[in-house]
Write a structure and sequence with these properties.
By secondary structure, this protein is mainly alpha-helical. It has six helices and three strands. It has one domain. Helix 1 crosses helix 4 and helix 4 packs across helix 5.
Length: 177
Amino acid sequence: MHPQGVFSHEELRLLAEGLNVAEDSVSDFFRLSEGFWYRHPFEVRTLAELEPAEVAPEALAQVLRLRKADGRRLRDRNFWRICFQDHNFLEAMQRKQAQDLFLPMLTYVMVHELVHVVRFSTFVQLFELDQKRRQAEEATVHRLSAEVLKRVRLPHLEQVLDCYENFAATPGSEGHC
């Protein structure tokens, strides 16, 4: 059904829909200016577009900080790549037999990753963290993601938030529902 665990055309359409909801919701929650995403650009890549080093064995998505040369500036600029792990996401959806959670789960994951981008871009949190601080950051981002999504009306989103609430309360959890 899913060759090599990559998203189908319809699943990519749902990812784009979830990303639109996530970007608008995160922007509203943090009261970001219209130019924020221009100054702190990000891109989303799915498994079919990832380099081997960008594929994670367990995460549903991860954020990478990359440098982009800008001939108009004296310094390179950071940009963020959200590496969506289709294979892990599809396996989680199949394991839970929860196709009705597909869009709300995509939306949650995208909100979660964009909250990281905002926190890293504004230096609320450093990108490079040791394991202990990374776990604390994950718990904070879980909590903030739930706050962002409380304002969003999406079928079955409450079920996804309830699932992730348990992970945010569990020290050392990696955040998989």
